[in-house]
Design brief:
two-stranded antiparallel sheet, globular, binds zinc ion
C-alpha cells in the first residue's frame, strides 16, 4: 500500500517536472498582404508543431499591442505602416526585445521610415530612385549558389546550397549587419541573409523565398526555422 502511494507520488512529481520543462509553443504573428504569393508558402510551417502561427494580413496587422501575445513577428508582407498607433505598436514590440524575421519582399516595407530600415531590418529594396541611388531591381527564376559566410545559430548545419529563386539587386544594405549568406550571382546583391543592427530585438532578414521552388528547398526550410528559433531566443 505504502509502496503504491510512493509510486503515485513519484509519478505525479515526474509529470509536474515534465510539464514545467516542456516549452510552450512559440507564438508567431505572420504578417502578409501588399504582395501576392503562392499559398504553398504555408506548407513550410505545417510540420513545425512547436509554432503557434496567427496570420494577420494588412490592414489588420499591428492594430493591437503585440508584446504580450506574440514572441515573434514573421514578415512576408509589403506595406508602409503609416498609422501612428500601428507604428507605436511595432516600435514597442522591437523595443521590448521580441524577435523579427523578415522574408523576401518584406525588405520593401516602410519605404519612408528610416528607423525601420536603418535600425531594425538593416536594408531596403528601393521601389523608386532616391538620393541619387537607382531603384532596386529583381529577376525571377535564377539558379543561385548560396554560401554561408558566418558561423551563427541561424546557419548551423547549413552547407553551401543551390536554390532557384528570385534575386534582388541594388538594395540599400546597412554596413552594420552581420551577413550570414552570400551569392556571387551577377543579378543579385552579394548578401542574401543577415542579422540586422537592432540592439533590443534579434532581427533576421532572408532575401530568398519567392515561390514553391524556394519554399520546398530543404536548406531554405532549415534556414527559416533556425531564424525563427534564434530570433525568438530559443537557440
Ligand atoms: Zn518575389
Amino acid at each position: 500500500m505504502r509502496t503504491a502511494r510512493i509510486g503515485i507520488l513519484l509519478f505525479g512529481l515526474a509529470l509536474a517536472i515534465f510539464g514545467a520543462t516542456r516549452e510552450k509553443p512559440l507564438r508567431v504573428l505572420l504578417v502578409t498582404g501588399g504582395h501576392s504569393y503562392d499559398p504553398a508558402f504555408h506548407e513550410i510551417f505545417t510540420e513545425w508543431k512547436d509554432l503557434d502561427i496567427t496570420v494577420a494580413p494588412h490592414p489588420s496587422a499591428f492594430r493591437e499591442d503585440m508584446r504580450s501575445r506574440y514572441d515573434l513577428l514573421l514578415l512576408y508582407d509589403l506595406a508602409d505602416v503609416e498609422d501612428e498607433a500601428k507604428k507605436a505598436n511595432l516600435r514597442n514590440f522591437v523595443d521590448a526585445g521580441r524577435g523579427i524575421v523578415a522574408l523576401h519582399h518584406a525588405i520593401a516595407d516602410n519605404q519612408n521610415w528610416p528607423w525601420w530600415q536603418e535600425d531594425v531590418i538593416g536594408g531596403l529594396y528601393l521601389l523608386k530612385p532616391r538620393d541619387g541611388k537607382p531603384a532596386s531591381t529583381y529577376e525571377h527564376d535564377l539558379d543561385m549558389d548560396i554560401q554561408p559566410v558566418a558561423k551563427h545559430p541561424v546557419t548551423a548545419g547549413i552547407d553551401a546550397f543551390r536554390i532557384n529563386d528570385e534575386a534582388y539587386k541594388q538594395m540599400w544594405i546597412s554596413p552594420r549587419n552581420l551577413v550570414l549568406l552570400r551569392t556571387n550571382h551577377p543579378q543579385s546583391d552579394g548578401p542574401v541573409a543577415w542579422i540586422g543592427p537592432n540592439r533590443q530585438s534579434r532581427v533576421v532578414y532572408i532575401q530568398l523565398g519567392h515561390g514553391p521552388l524556394a519554399y520546398r528547398n530543404p536548406s531554405y526550410r532549415k534556414l527559416v526555422r533556425q531564424a525563427i528559433l534564434w530570433a525568438a531566443g530559443r537557440q
